[in-house]
Amino acid sequence: MTADPTSVDRALDHVTTATRVEAAGTPPKFIDEIVGRVNNDTAALSIAHMRSPAGWAEPGQTPEFEEYTYVLTGELHAEDERGVVVVRAGEAVHARAGRWVRYSTPDQSTEYVSVCVPAFSPGIVHRDPE
Q: Residues 62-77: pLDDT tens digits?
């Protein structure tokens, strides 16, 4: 856990470092979880800083969590059964739990923040076979 151990008796928990998490898809992208199951044992939600290169794509998934994604730079393609939504810098997308979605950054490197409720876990993401 990376939370400040002196904060136990405080109203605030100060998380000072993120943990790099292995990402699905190719080419590789970077996921730095600041809050969540991996970094500070938080199951209620996860917050991660994502950086994916141009040409990145991951398998589809049907997660058991809500996912809110805010794009900082570039553009993220979010696909569901009805088609692709292109999410540009300054925009966000919400993927509902229990619904199929696939993410990619085919045209340009993209930086974004993802919030999952409850926290992301490999056991509840339910990725499609590759």
A: 999 999 999 999 999 9
